[in-house]
Q: What sequence folds into this?
């Protein structure tokens, strides 16, 4: 613990674990990408419904793929193997000091957080694409929920999260540039489709909380 800088020590003390089995269950559920499949389907519907033809839809989907390839690919294939930073939950000194909910612990490296990069990349891209307040707020909340779970479960240091968020902004912005280059112009999104995305997000969180009680 003493070998960590103040920033990472602060993150561990503030976010890692609790004495609540309910919160443990919530964090374990919310960190699973499979839980968010309905939300991803809602995002796909938003893209398909608001682009006028197959070409524009494919360009948008391709830009999203570019975003995720950059955010996850650079993180998991390049940076993590180079830095080789052990996850907090796998550091023996920290395992003895902090509770690990459900014994959860991934075996790959910590720096930087691909969860933070992926969700922030999507948030940045859809913020630039849709430009509706409810969409932006929903995507920011989605990102915050997921980075909270990573900190709570001891999967990342705070610095891992911050760098992941920054790279997510870069990835989402680059993907947006790809979209702008090849598309015929950003469509005028209706208010109803971002509302669907927001509804799916809040329904997912509420149902998860009910399930974990």
A:
């Amino acid at each position: 613990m003493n070998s960590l800088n103040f920033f990472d020590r602060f993150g561990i003390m503030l976010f890692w674990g609790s004495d609540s089995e309910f919160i443990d269950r919530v964090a374990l559920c919310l960190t699973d990408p499979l839980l968010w499949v309905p939300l991803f389907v809602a995002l796909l519907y938003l893209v398909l419904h608001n682009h006028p033809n197959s070409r524009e839809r494919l360009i948008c989907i391709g830009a999203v793929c570019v975003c995720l390839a950059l955010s996850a690919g650079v993180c998991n294939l390049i940076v993590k193997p180079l830095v080789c930073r052990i996850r907090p939950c796998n550091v023996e000194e920290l395992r003895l000091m902090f509770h690990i909910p459900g014994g959860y612990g991934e075996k790959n490296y910590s720096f930087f957080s691909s969860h933070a990069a992926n969700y922030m990349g999507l948030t940045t891209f859809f913020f630039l694409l849709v430009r509706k307040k409810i969409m932006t707020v929903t995507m920011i909340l989605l990102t915050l929920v997921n980075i909270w779970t990573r900190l709570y479960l001891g999967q990342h240091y705070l610095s891992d999260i911050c760098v992941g968020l920054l790279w997510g902004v870069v990835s989402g912005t680059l993907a947006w540039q790809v979209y702008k280059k090849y598309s015929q112009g950003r469509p005028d999104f209706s208010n109803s489709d971002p509302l669907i995305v927001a509804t799916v997000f809040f329904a997912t969180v509420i149902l998860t909380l009910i399930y974990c009680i």
User: Anything to note?
Assistant: The first helix runs from residue 6 to 15. DSSP finds nine helices and no strands in the chain. The chain has a mean pLDDT of 91. The two ends are 33 Å apart (CA to CA).
